[in-house]
Each structure stands twice: as structure tokens, then as C-alpha cells.
What does this fold into?
Amino acid sequence: MAFHPLLKDAIELHCHSYPSMFPRKQTDWELIEDVKKAGMAGVVLKSHESQTVDRAALIRLKEPEIDVYGGLVCNHFSGGLSPATVDAAIRLGAKVIWMPTVSSNEHCCHFGKKKTRFFNSERPLENPEKGLEIWDENRKILPEVHEILQLIAEADIAVATGHLSAEEVDVLLDAALEHNVRKILIQHADLGIAPVPLEMQKEFARKGAILEKCYLACSEDFQDLTVEEMAHSIREIGAESCVLVTDYGQEHNIPPIQALSNFVGEMVDCGISEKEIETMIVKNPKQLLGI
It folds into this structure.
């Protein structure tokens, strides 16, 4: 398997691997082998159902030359919006705290309309019918979310917006800035689960956030936009405010690093410069991870 040469020293910030209770394409170790073959600097392990900090720490012991990091997604089954759980993850070495993903109200509403089983698992996952939101009925941010943002700010790590609605992301971003959070990642802004309009994306970038440009949004699974439209959005926002990620790892898709390689090649074909690619897969990810 040949990987694009621009992957050298890159970091994939958003992909999924096994162990997981959802079907995954690769184990952590298979993912790391691809990272090494591509000459990449590292990868962030993400799991919807558990923190990934301990997995990443063990991998770094065996592969100290690779920057492998983890974090915590604030879903129902991993502690929810719990400052205590976030604090523990940070003390273990979390580099990213993700807001709710599959437990977010936005996600539950999106897939509820499709009437599909939760992540197409064979047995329905125990997940409260009401999804998590970061605010109360008056759209005032919950006290526990403020606590989480303060913990993130003090640790100088990244907060990622998960599958929150665009309106929640807007409010969360302002709150994060008030708490002096310096690393803010707007996740898969073009993905149909929780889309963010382009003008809003540009405003978020002006406020200092980094936006994920996610290959999964262009995949057959979602088909939310073409790669040409993705390239256009990068030009509109500016590569200095974007990162290229895949969100791959699903069993039926190609492996994440191969997907990132394809994504980079397609962006180059669309006229995105090598310098812009380097900014989005090397410079900005390293800044977000503090490495």
C-alpha cells in the first residue's frame, strides 16, 4: 500500500479503531503500522464509548517515536458532561476532550428521523432517549460545562465540539474563549449529522477556532458535499484555520490512513497547495496537541 508523500510528519486527529463495541476496520496496532509506513508523526485515537488515554499511553511505551494520544468523549456511557470524569482523563494525559457525539441531542434527532438502529449494532445500545445538550431550556450553558471548560483551559488542551448543533457550537465557542481555552476544534463542520453553514464556519475561524475538513462528509456514506466543494470551503475559510481529517475506521470503509492519503491527493488535484496541505495536516494538528 503506497501513501501520499505529503503525509510525512502528519497527524490524523480524527479516526476510529478497535477496541470498540462498534465494528472497526483496524485494531490500534494495525492503525499504528499504517501511521509508521506513511512516515507520519502520529495519530489521535477516538472512541465514542470510552476514554482512549490509557490505550495511547501503552502504545507510546512500545512506539515512543510516534505521537499517539487519546482523550475523552462526553457521552452518556463514558460519564456524560461530568467534570470529575473529564478531570480524571486530563490527569491521565488526555489531549482532547470531545463534547457529546452519539449521545448528543443533535445526533439522536438526526438518526431518529432515519429510524435506524443505534450505529446499526445487532442489539440496541442502552442510551437514554433524550440526548445531551450543553445548555438548559433557556439556552444558558450548564454549570458543569463551564467547569469542564475551565479544566480544559487550565490543562491547555483542546476542546472539540463533537456532534453538537451549530447553535450549540456557537455558544460553546464563546464560552470557551471566556474561559481562555486556546485550542478549539470545530468537528466535521460539513458532515450532515450536525452541519455548520459556511458563513458560520468563517466566523468561527475569525474567532480563532480550527475547523475539521472531514473526508467522511464526501464519502458514499454521507455525500454531503463533493471534494471540489470541500476545497472551495478551505479557500473561503483559509487553510490556516483548517485541519484535514477522515473520521474513518468503519468496518466497510478503507483504512483511515489510506483514506487520509486519498483525501490529500484529491485536495492537491483540486488546487490546494502543498504548503496549505502541510498547514492542515502537520502544523495545525501539532499546535492543537501541543507538540
